[in-house]
Amino acid sequence: LHSFPTRRSSDLHYHNIKQRCFFANLLQQINALLLENKARQTLDLAKQTLPEILESAEKNGTTDTLIYYARKIFNACGNNYINTKQYKDGIDYMDSIGNHPLIREHCPHELLSFKAGLNQLYGNNPEAVRLAEDYLQLPVCTSANDFIRQAEIISGVYMYSGNNLPKAIQILEKAIDVY
User: Rounded CA gap, 140 and 164, in Å?
Assistant: First the structure.
């Protein structure tokens, strides 16, 4: 007897491929906007896309594909909130999505580093340092490229909000070792 994929499993496979292409296309658009220095349009598209990823995770379960695109698009959001100096809006946005299971479980490094950085830039130094401390309790980020950016943000928090130059340097040295 031959085992053929059921209609349901082939439908799921097709859905996963379609989903991957859809989010890859959106990420390509976001990256193109970034290259053109169109921060506002980048942020708008990223903020539109991330809820679609979260909704898909709720409907179909969290997949490696969704985690990958959530991280990439979350990074685009965080960087653009910083680059456009929309610190309070960024904090509010991070708070609004931060309790979603996909973000909480698979993007804690991104969430805590951007929230810490945004709070530091907004002038809420005690909260920035608290979030940086929470970030340092996490296992080291597995993506060297992402860890470099996160270390830059967290070290800035210790440098400017915590007045702790030795800790800021220690974080950057660890990032260099990982990279």
Answer: 21
Q: Angle, nearest 10°, between helix axes 144-156 and 108-122?
A: 30
Tens of pLDDT, residues 22-32: 888 888 898 88
**Residue 39: CB atoms within 10 Å:** 19
Q: Give dist(CA 116, CA 150) in Å, integer.
A: 10
Find out whether 70 and 106 touch, Cβ atoms under 8 Å: yes
Is the whole-model pTM more than 0.90? no
Residue 123, phi then psi, degrees to nearest 5: 100, 5
Burial category of 174 from C-beta neighbours within 10 Å (exposed 0-12, middle 13-18, buried 19 and up): middle
Inter-helix orientation angle 125-136/108-122, to 10°: 160
